[in-house]
UniProtKB/TrEMBL annotation:
CDD domains: PcrB_like. Keywords: Lipid biosynthesis, Lipid metabolism, Magnesium, Metal-binding, Phospholipid biosynthesis, Phospholipid metabolism, Transferase. It comes from the Bacteria. One of its GO terms (biological process) is glycerophospholipid biosynthetic process. InterPro entries: GGGP/HepGP_synthase_I, GGGP/HepGP_synthase_sf, GGGP_HepGP_synthase. It holds the Pfam family PcrB. One of its GO terms (molecular function) is heptaprenylglyceryl phosphate synthase activity. It catalyses: sn-glycerol 1-phosphate + all-trans-heptaprenyl diphosphate = 3-heptaprenyl-sn-glycero-1-phosphate + diphosphate. This is Geranylgeranylglyceryl/heptaprenylglyceryl phosphate synthase.
Length: 234
């Protein structure tokens, strides 16, 4: 089935807790990227998420929110992605927090634009690993088992291999990709320019670029074309 994200190759991730001046934000929106993801692992509030949404409203590319806390789930986004951290021993981050949110909000959720997003967090030093207690030390073999679980058992639409802040192991990513049959593979972490963007885009269906936006805008913008020009391995 074709979903909103089915053709996304390149995505910029913006963190409401960090500042991007207006001119830079406009450059991001006009960069040719396929979508903007709004998300972060800490420091997100209703107010800073609403403020960023307001600045993004009116753009002609999809603006999607990764909902890490129910209070952030403002109306007005084009889609909502609900992270489920697969490689944590803390059930709260797999289904606990999500179920708690549903106790209160089930009737308010726009299900037609809401999807689960399985996360494999593989950089032990990143904030997401710290807050969710993820076991980031998985071998390729273990990561592939989680990928099968996401794809075959849970039939998740999306699997996000997250190395936030560090460029990941492309061998592991390839191994994960090879076991997926229906789940779309997203990669994010440490992409700082065209070369890494292209390396990741050869394997992952969607490549997410975040941090570099805040210290090297030109480097960040150059990843869009690099991803466009890269064909995904079969
Ligand atoms: C973070 O995967 C994204 O959630 C992007 O990672 O910030 O390292 O680019 P970087």
């Amino acid at each position: 089935m074709k979903e909103l994200f089915s053709d996304w190759r390149h995505v910029f991730k913006l963190d409401p807790d960090r500042t991007l001046p207006q001119r830079e934000l406009e450059a991001v929106l006009g960069s040719g990227t396929d979508a903007i993801m709004v998300g972060g692992s800490s420091g997100l509030t209703y107010d800073n998420t609403a403020a960023l949404l307001e600045r993004l409203t009116g753009s002609d590319i999809p603006i999607v929110l990764e909902v890490t806390h129910p209070e952030l789930a403002l109306p007005g986004f084009d889609a909502y992605l609900i992270p489920m951290v697969l490689n944590t021993g803390q059930g709260d981050w797999i289904t606990g927090r999500q179920a708690l949110a549903l106790e209160e909000m089930a009737g308010l959720i726009p299900w037609e634009k809401t999807w689960a997003e399985g996360y494999l967090i593989l950089n032990e030093d990143c904030e997401a690993a710290r807050v969710s207690g993820a076991d980031a030390s998985l071998t390729e073999f273990q990561a592939a088992a989680y990928a099968r679980l996401a794809d075959r058992l849970m039939r998740l639409p999306l699997l996000y291999v997250e190395y936030s802040g560090r460029f990941g192991d492309m061998g592991l990513l390839r191994r994960v990709k090879r076991v997926l049959s229906g789940t779309r593979l997203i990669y994010g972490g440490g992409i700082d320019g065209p070369q890494r963007a292209s390396q990741a885009a050869r394997i992952a269906s969607t490549v997410v670029v975040g941090n570099v936006l805040y210290h090297d805008l030109d480097g960040a913008l150059s990843t869009v074309q690099a991803v466009r020009e890269t064909e995904q391995e079969i």
